[in-house]
Specification:
This protein is of the alpha/beta class. The protein contains nine helices and 14 strands. The strands form four sheets. It has an eight-stranded parallel beta barrel, surrounded by seven helices. The protein has a two-stranded antiparallel sheet with strand order 3-4. The two termini are 25 Å apart. The protein binds (5S)-5-amino-3-OXO-hexanoic acid (KMH) and zinc ion (ZN).
């Protein structure tokens, strides 16, 4: 097993859940900033960022991304990764809008999939538009793979030079409509990556903990957080993002995987 440092990404809040479902979700800019800082203090080096508007609704507004980014930067160093996925139904234009702020990283989902009862639309034109937005603003993509077909799209687009050469891959497994978070699926996906390609695993819901274990053992990186999973264990809601990250840190240390500092993560993914 590798003893390379593990990069922990904190997905502190997504677009799908509401405070009615779990009051600990960070929603306001101040709550998002506190959650980001606590996550970094716990061991995360990347903050995967979605924001909400004044009504608590998912938003891709540039002013809110700007405010939250500035406030995080005032309090800690972290790689800030903007979501270009937004919420299901967000227009491509809105999804790309915050990239003008030139975050260090931004997501790039490589295909359309059923997303629970909704459809997360990422047709060819959308992917190309988002990839261009990332390229224009010098943002390193985190390619989000939800399904095996998206892996094939990655291979095809790389061959056609449709996406930048430097990118990180995140396997987001467990969306109802995408691939589930089994070790067999992770092994298959990782086996198809170009040699030396950096990757992380994000397991949704009950897949978060097992995928963390598998990714650590396989030499990958890990994403956890309340966007992906609001439970600490079955029947017990997570108190905070930091609580989920602290568990990854404890397990990683037991496995002789040191926790990557922000600077090490930059060297590994962005240099
Ligand atoms: N909210 C999902 C529909 C991303 O951040 O890039 C898409 C998502 C992916 O969360
Ligand atoms: Zn997201």
């Amino acid at each position: 097993m590798t003893s390379d440092p593990v990069i922990i990404t904190a997905a502190i809040v997504g677009a799908e859940r509401s405070v009615e479902q779990w009051a600990a979700l960070p929603i306001t800019p101040e709550q998002l900033v506190d959650a980001a800082v606590e996550s970094v203090e716990a061991g995360a080096s990347i903050i995967h960022l979605h924001v909400r508007d004044e009504d608590g609704q998912p938003s891709q507004r540039v002013d809110i991304f700007s405010k939250v980014t500035d406030l995080i930067r005032q309090r800690c160093d972290a790689i800030i990764q903007y979501s270009t996925g937004g919420a299901v139904g967000t227009t491509t234009q809105d999804r790309i809008a915050p990239l003008v702020l030139a975050p260090e990283m931004g997501t790039l989902s490589l295909g359309t999939l059923n997303f629970g009862e909704d459809i997360f639309e990422n047709g060819h034109d959308t992917i190309i538009e988002i990839a261009q937005g990332l390229r224009l603003n010098n943002v390193v993509p985190e390619v989000e793979i939800f399904d095996l077909g998206m892996m094939e799209t990655l291979e095809r687009y790389l061959a056609q030079e449709l996406i930048p050469k430097k990118f990180h891959v995140d396997f987001v497994l467990g969306v109802p409509g995408g691939l589930s978070g089994t070790i067999e699926n992770l092994v298959t996906l990782v086996g198809r990556l170009p040699k030396g390609q950096s990757w992380s695993a994000a397991g949704l819901g009950r897949y978060e903990l097992p995928l963390t274990l598998h990714a650590l053992a396989m030499g990958g990186h890990v994403r956890v957080g309340l966007e992906d999973n609001i439970y600490y264990r079955k029947g017990e809601l997570a108190k905070s993002n930091a609580q989920l990250i602290e568990r990854v840190v404890r397990i990683a240390k037991e496995c002789d995987r040191p926790i990557a500092t922000v600077e090490q993560a930059r060297q590994m993914l962005l240099a």
